[in-house]
Design brief:
- It is a single chain.
- The chain has 378 residues and is mainly alpha-helical.
- It has a domain of 220 residues.
- Helix content is 69%, strand content 5%.
- The chain contains 14 helices and four strands.
- The strands form two sheets. A two-stranded antiparallel sheet has the order 1-4. Strands 2-3 form a two-stranded antiparallel ribbon.
- Helix 5 crosses helix 11, helix 5 packs across helix 12 and helix 6 runs antiparallel to helix 11.
- It starts with a helix and ends with a strand.
- It is found in: Cell inner membrane.
- InterPro entries: ABC_transp_permease (IPR001851).
- Keywords: Cell membrane, Membrane, Transmembrane, Transmembrane helix.
């Protein structure tokens, strides 16, 4: 470069740098954390996220071969307005309500109970043991089976909560590992001493008629009112009782709750034990209500569904009832799609995953807002 031209160019660049530059944008947007959002706006955001998830799911089902015009008919008309299918929805919803509420209970106490399946398995094992060993008279057999299911589910939830509070063991790992222990012990029983001697298939002998949940009226199983009673007790515990008030402090901030005198450890232990008991009752409902015996796969899908219900309901017991009914509708409609359109049941699990992703994404818009900032503001 010419030595005479170079100083001139440097001078021009220096002068240009000193000139005030116009803003690239007269307006821009800033992302802020919300301090608080009214509950009805939260409901609107979650509702829009669910609609988006349902829209994506509908597109996938149409691509898989389900006629678009039949989606509303399959998922709403034939499921809700058909008496037989409505009974099936209520029957399917009963254990789902319990595992969903079990998840809500534990999550409220800041305990991530992913061992709902293991607690269900032990509840079913306890109920089946009462049947196999013929404990008590026939008239008391069902109440004894229910009590055994509660006790076994509660006991299986005790280990991880003690490990967390005493030894600081992460409950996500401990509850998941205990699931595998429960599953393998179940298989040990069903392929061993509890195998049906008549058929030699890996399931327990069939329960006696007085050991199964009866139908009360118009084909409605006793599992439905039992689930409703447990749900009402859970609503009372979380919404009205003093323990529920303490639990709100624990859910908000355990350290502050302990500082103001709330018995944090006792609340966590008690709530997790109630969660395990509910999961145990769910195992009893499936074995004594739906299966009529202990099988090796009765629990499959319920653990994930319970976590999903608690997550979608945001640990609200009233919302958990609604979500559990919607999940039961999805399961019943999924079985119909299997029969008439050869849709695999894994498609139902895919729809569940899509709904989880959409609702999880909606949390970003609940916790944040986009604010338009004037060009001169920082």
């Amino acid at each position: 470069m010419n030595e005479q031209v170079r100083p001139v160019m440097l001078e021009q660049v220096s002068q240009a740098a000193k000139q005030p530059k116009p803003p690239l944008l007269s307006r821009r947007y800033a992302l802020e954390i919300r301090q608080q959002l009214a509950w009805h706006w939260q409901a609107v955001i979650i509702g829009l996220a669910l609609l988006l998830g349902l829209g994506i799911s509908a597109a996938i089902l149409v691509t898989a071969g389900v006629p678009a015009g039949e989606l509303l008919n399959e998922f709403v008309v034939l499921t809700v307005f058909d008496a037989q299918n409505l009974k099936a929805v209520l029957f399917q919803a009963s254990p789902m309500i319990l595992v969903g509420l079990a998840g809500c209970m534990a999550f409220r106490a800041k305990f991530w109970n992913l061992g709902l399946e293991g607690q269900m398995i032990w509840g079913a094992i306890g109920a089946t043991a009462i049947s196999l060993f013929e404990v008590g008279p026939p008239a008391l057999r069902l109440p004894l089976m229910l009590a055994a299911a509660i006790g076994c589910g509660l006991a299986w939830a005790l280990a991880p909560v003690v490990l967390k509070l005493r030894l600081k063991v992460n409950e996500i790992i401990s509850t998941l590992m205990l699931n595998y222990l429960a599953i393998n012990f179940l298989l040990h029983l069903l392929y061993g001493s509890w195998k049906d001697p008549r058929s030699s298939f890996p399931y327990s002998p069939q329960f006696q008629p007085f050991e199964r949940l009866p139908e009360l009226f118009d084909g409605i199983s006793a599992a439905v009112p039992l689930a409703v009673v447990v749900a009402l007790l859970a609503l009372w515990f979380l919404g009205i009782s003093r323990a529920g008030l303490y639990l709100r402090f624990v859910d908000a901030n355990p350290r502050v709750a302990g500082a103001v005198g709330v018995p944090v450890q006792k609340m966590i232990i008690g709530t997790v034990l109630i969660s395990g008991a509910m999961a145990g009752i769910a195992g009893f409902l499936v074995t004594a209500g739906q299966e009529g015996r202990l099988t090796q796969s009765f629990y499959q899908g319920y653990g994930f569904s319970g976590i999903l219900i608690a997550f979608l309901a945001r640990n609200n017991p009233v919302a958990a009832l609604v979500v559990a009914l919607l999940m039961a509708m999805l399961f019943v409609a999924g079985r119909s799609l299997q029969v008439f359109y050869q849709i695999p049941f894994s498609m139902v699990q895919l729809i569940q995953a899509i709904l989880v992703i959409c609702v999880a994404s909606s949390d970003f818009f609940i916790r944040h807002r986009i604010r338009r900032v004037q060009g001169g503001e920082s």
